[in-house]
Amino acid sequence: MNAETNAVFRPPLDQARWLGTDPIPTKAYYDPEHYELERKAIFMRTWLQIGHVCELPEPGSFIRRDLEFAEASLLIVRGKDNVIRAFHNLCTHRATQIVSETEGRTNAFICPYHMWNFGLDGQLRSAPDFENFFTTKEDCALKQVPVDTCAGLIFINLDRGCAQPLNEFLGEYIVDRLEQAPVAKATGFSEYVYDLDANWKVDYDNFQENYHLKFIHPRSGAPSYTTDNPFGYPEQFAFHGPHRTQIFWSGINMDVATPTQALISGAGMKHAMEKGLIPNPTNREYYALFPNFFLLGSPTQHFSHTVYPLTARKSRGVIRLYWVGEAQSASELLAREFGFLVARDIHAEDVAVIRAGQRGLNSGALEHMHFQAMEGLCRHLYQVSSEMVQAYRDEAAAKGEPV
Amino acid sequence: MSAQHSLPAGFERLELFVDQWVTATTAERAQRRTDSTPEERQAFFDAAAPMLEQAIAYLDAKPLARLDDADKRLLKLMFSLSHVQMAVEVHREMEPRHAMLREIMVITRSATDGI
To answer: Does residue A193 belong to the interface with chain B, where contact is any CB pair within 8 Å?
Structure first.
C-alpha cells in the first residue's frame, strides 16, 4: 500500500477563495440571450480543441468537423508540405459544402456542384469555364481558419483575425505539462459521444467538481474516497489565466478493485511502464482548458473530454481515450477495452443528474445558485466566461455596435 | 463443436459462451451486455473470470500478429468478460438503470475493433 494513503488529507479550501463567495446568477446557465452572447464572445473567437494530429497521419489526410454552434463545417488537412491547415468546408463559388466524408485522404477538394478544384493548400487550382467569371483564382482560395497544435492536440479559432497565438493562450505551464502528457505521443484513440439536454457550462461543471462523486458514483468511484477524504476531493487547485488544473488525491484506494479488475488493470500498468508512460508528472493532474476541454493526465486512463455548445440548453460531449503506439500484446488490448468501457460507464452515471439540473434551471425559479469552496473551478469558469461576455459588450459599445 | 466456434485447447469450458459473447466490435459487446439477462451475465462471469489469468498468459505468449482465429475468439471473450465484470461486480442490481444511462454514450471508435 502506498505510504501516502496514511497522510492526513486537507482539502484545498482556500485555493479558490480569491474568486469570492457570492451566489451565482443562474441566468447564465439557461437564458438564450446570454448563450448568444457567450457564443459570440467566447466560442466564435477562442482557441478550441477539435482533434489530434494522429487523425492526420500523412500528406492528404483530412478530417471534417462540424461545429453546430457556429453553423460551420471545417476541413482540417495535412498538406503535401506536412503543414496542417484548416478551411471552411465550402466552395468559394456559391458556398456549397464540398466534403461529406468525415475523414479520408485526398489530393484535392472538388466541389460536387460545378467541379471547382482546390489544392490541399486551399488554392483554387481549376474551375470549368473560369474565364467567364469576373474574379481571379487567387481571390477564390478556400476560406482559411487559424489552426495550431499543442502536444498533438489540434486547436482552431473561428476568429480569422485572432491575434493571440495558441501557446500564449494556453500559457507556459499548461503547454509544458501537456507536452509531457501521453497525448503528445498518442497514435490512436477510442471515442464515445453524447448529446445532452444541458447548457455547456452545466454539463462541463459536473466534471470539474468531486463533491458529487460519492453520491453519483457510489460503486464505480469507490477507490476515490477513503475515511481520510470522504468526498474524494482533490489535493490542489491551480488557476492559469482562463484555465484551471487540479491534482487528485494521492491516497486513492485501489484495494477495492476486484481480482478481475486487478488482473486487467495490472496488465495496463505493466504496458504503460514498458512504454515509459509511468512515472509521469501529469499522472494525477486534471486539466480544464477554457472554454470547453478537459484532459486527465493519468497514463492508463488518459481521456480528453470536449463539451460543445449546441443551444442555450443543449450540449455535446466528445470523450476520447488516447493510446500511445500499437498494442503489442493481447493483454494490452484487453486493458484498452477495459479502460474505455469503465470510463464510459462512469461518465454515463452523470447524465441523469446533469439533465435534472438543467430542467430545474430552465424554470427560472432559482435566481442564484451556490458553489462551495470545493466547487471553486465551477466558480472560475463562470467568472471567466462572464468577463469575456462583458469585454465583448464593451468592445461593441466602444464601436457603437449593438451586441 | 464446430470449427468456427473452437477456442484454443484448454479453454473448451468457455465454448458455450462463444455465440453470445464473441463479437467484432466494442460497441457490439456493450450492446450484448445491455441485451443480456442477469442470469446470462452471471453464468458467463462465473465461467470466464477464473480463466482470465490463464487466458492472458496463453495469449501474451504470442505476438499479437500471430494470434490465430481461435486465439482471437478467446481474446474477444475476455473483452466481453471485462464488460460483464462491471455489470456483475460493480453495478449489480443497478445494472438495468445503468444500461439506460449508457445508451446516451454512443461509441464511435474503439482501439480494439481491428482485431
So the answer is: yes
